Amino acid sequence: MNQVSEEVSQKLELIRNALTEADAQGLRLRGTDWFAWATAGGSSTVLLTAETGIAEVLVTAEDAWILTDEIEAQRLKDEEIPGNFQHYANPWADAAARESFVQQATNGGKILSDRPIPHVEKRLPASLQQHKRTLMSSELERYRQLGRQASEAMTEVLKAAKPDWTEYQLAGAGAEALWARGIHPALTLVAGERRLPLYRHATATGEEIGRQAMLVFCARRHGLYANLTRFVSFGSSDESAKLHGDVRQIEAEALNFLKPGIALNAVYDTLADVYQKHGYPNAIREHHQGGTTGYLAREVVANPTTNDTLEENMAIAWNPSVRGAKIEDTFVLLKDGLENLTFDPNFPSVEVAGRLRPVPLKVG
What digits encode the pLDDT tens for the residues 22-75? Predict the structure, then answer.
């Protein structure tokens, strides 16, 4: 049995344990995130922005199926899905046929789902959601490759950037560099010199970037997300350098706090205190601070009430920011500390609290 098939077998066992726990006869996974998790990186995505794809997973005590329509069935079987699954394809104009098949496969019993039909299906147990957020060794292998290539794409683009490029051009170059590596550009944010202090979530415009710019990636492959933020500078001010330095110090205190068993709201509270200490008391309210990641850009966003706890082999992406500066990488929490999945040694960095952290790339 190859590594992918072995991973799927382990996940099917986890799903069947959830069926037993909930006394259910079937479990349907509709979201693109859950589909990728259950199939060890298979993709049901056609429309990049859709939360649900062109196929779903159905698991019973005896069988595991990929449910799709006749448009998609052969490609999925040939290119996306390991041999652990059977396939059912309904005519694309007959969605009712799929529902009849599900009822037959589950003997009309109780069904669980990540996106349950109201009053018909039940939500997934918390135990299975926790398994999705805790990465297996084979998932970590895929994640390391994704993180390395996404960060290399970022470096390549920012080294080529020019101050007279528009924000659209920078975002487009970022997307092109990701696609060239087989990575979905799920998000490419860009803010140039003027817009950078104004907006935290700066979608690209036709404005020239000027003396500095921020580029943000949420880069997806095999369902996993590599999240990172970098800056390019064509001669920015000392004030900008101070902002970046402060953000690195703020992030360092949050990263130093992380260990298995820590609740996400405790990390949020730590960040709130650190912002205050560095003279940015309102920054905690001006943008979300990140949280756990993996099969979503953020599985759980930390806030004052998120008491979800960190576990070994969870991926984390914090993004502390102040007006004009931000820092973000994707880490995995290992037994012996944090591993930065999106580190590129060819991008400039400085050591902060024993870790190499990015600084703005100076061009020209």
Answer: 999 999 999 999 999 999 999 999 999 999 999 999 999 999 999 999 999 999
The reported pLDDT for the residue numbered 250 is 98
Do 202 and 190 contact (CB within 8 A), yes or no? yes
CA 355 → CA 211, 247, 248, 362, distances in Å? 28, 14, 10, 21
Q: Where are the alpha helices (DSSP H) in 221-277?
A: 238-257, 264-277
Q: Is the dihedral angle over the CA atoms 74, 75, 76, 78 positive or is it negative?
A: positive
Place of tokens 């590596």: 181
Q: Tell me the three state secondary structure of residue 133.
A: helix
DSSP-assigned letters across all residues of 192-223: -TTTTTT-SS----SSB-TTEEEEEEEEEETT
DSSP label of 97: H
CA 160/CA 45 separation, integer angstroms: 30
Return the closest-CA partner of residue 330 out of 151, 134, 135, 181.
151
Residue 21 is encoded by which pair of tokens? 């726990």
- Give CA–CA dist 109/101, Å, rounded: 13
| 111-113 and 26-31 strand pairing | parallel
Does residue 342 contact residue 151 with C-beta atoms inside 8 Å?
yes
| Residue-wise pLDDT tens digits, 338-347 | 999 999 999 9
The overall pTM is greater than 0.90: yes
Is beta strand 52-59 parallel, antiparallel or unpaired with respect to 64-69? Answer: antiparallel
Q: How far apart are CA 97 and CA 130, in angstroms?
A: 33
**Closest alpha carbon to 184 in 156, 155, 218:** 218
Sheet containing strand 224-233, edge to edge, reads 184-191, 212-221, 224-233, 361-362
Tell me the C-alpha distance between 321 and 84, whole Å.
44
**Is residue 247 within 8 Å of 322, Cβ to Cβ?**
yes
Cα separation, 184 vs 187, in Å, equals 9
Which strands, in side-by-side order, build the sheet including 122-123? 86-90, 64-69, 52-59, 26-31, 111-113, 122-123
Query: Would you say residue 239 has pLDDT above 90?
Result: no
Residue whose C-alpha is closest to residue 68's, from 95, 50, 104, 106? 95
